Amino acid sequence: MLPLQLIDTFLLDYNIGQALLLVFILSTVGALPLKSRRIIGINTVIFGLIFLLTPVTLAKPHYLFFGVTLLIVGPILYVTGRR
Asked: What distance in Å separates the CA atoms of residue 46 and residue 41, rounded to the nearest whole number?
């Protein structure tokens, strides 16, 4: 478990959009060894919703458009995955 002060000092240097992008990249890299497009698609859709629902006052507006893009790409990854 990370101490809250460490997380606080990290978030002071970056906005929440950049932190969410880092978590999205790390979770995608973590899911790659599973070799499942469906899991990556579900991960993409969930982070698309998170980016879309993040208030613009906390993150820049281009993260909103990134969320819309993830919501388009995620279902395509899910449908093209094998059962």
From this structure: 9
The two three-digit tokens of residue 22, written as one number: 């880092």
Burial of 25 (0-12, 13-18, 19+ CB in 10 A): exposed
Say how far apart CA 45 and CA 69 lie, in whole Å.
10
- Taking only the tens place, the pLDDT of each residue in 34-61 is 999 999 999 999 999 999 999 888 888 8
CB atoms < 10 A from the CB of 6, how many? 9
Please name the residue that has the structure tokens 């790409």. 73
pLDDT tens for 2-11 read 788 887 787 7
